[in-house]
Prior knowledge:
The chain is an alpha/beta fold. It folds into 3 domains: 5-91, Winged helix-like DNA-binding domain superfamily/Winged helix DNA-binding domain (Arc Repressor Mutant, subunit A, Orthogonal Bundle); 92-162 and 268-288, 3-Layer(aba) Sandwich (D-Maltodextrin-Binding Protein, domain 2), CATH 3.40.190.10; 164-267, 3-Layer(aba) Sandwich (D-Maltodextrin-Binding Protein, domain 2). Helix content is 42%, strand content 24%. It contains 10 helices and 12 strands. The longest helix is centred in the first third of the chain and has 32 residues, at 61-92. The protein is rod-shaped, with a radius of gyration of 33 Å.
Amino acid sequence: MRIAPEYLITFNAVAELGSVSKAAAFLNLSQPAVSGQLRSLTALIGTPLYTRHARGIALTAAGAELLPLAQTLARTMTRVVDFAADRRQRLNSTVQLGISWTLSPWAIQLATAFQGSSTVLVIHADHTPDLITRVRSGVLDAALTVDASLNLPEGLEARRFSSEELRVIVPAGHPLTQQGYVPLHALAGEVLLWPMPESSVRRRGSKLLERAGVTPRAHLELGSFLAVKQALVGGVGVAILPRSMVATEIDHGLLASIGLESPEVTLGYHAVSAPLALLSAPVREVLDQLSPYSL
């Protein structure tokens, strides 16, 4: 024998409110529907659960014995509904944000800003083209990208939130640190440290050298920004990077940043997403946090 949970929930409401009409209003049901559920429950139990009187209903001994069980079920169902609502709210408040490897300092700033917030920020690092593809497919709500303002897929837009120049990063004490700016040909005698080939920074740096006709003494392919940073600190060579990627090491005197006397050294940082009017409030809240950051 199976007793439908809604029969017990209805019975509990009638017993606690003392009236079929009040229970119907509370449950958002019609009075015939409430009466029908009570009759079905009584039939399943096999004995009367209540009696009617002028002021409403009164429980029988069997009804009074059943009431604590019905109350437990009603409380449990209320907790289930609250749990489901909470989970839906958390899901709706979760922002899936892609960030280019170049923009890792913004990842730290945003993660810190939303720590303990009702908006849950989940950050995914990748290269700009892959991030744009994931925003277009709906896997990501938005992405912070490098030089992504052109040739975007239909339905996406790029909003510039910052920019930064590429600079020559050298170990502390390197001879080039005596100069504030250097021409590209000053790198001809250096070992150039490079991150992964897919990097926007890598592609821009390579184009600068190629257009200037500069061939460094050697190229060292390291495959990641972390490896480039460690090699710089170890004095292995020099690199073309935005200052923000090695700001901590520069501030601690481990590395130095030198300007490049060259055009087209400015990187544009763009937030890519659907048009702002189509974004949820949590996504807009995250993107609104970008404007104060100038790293």
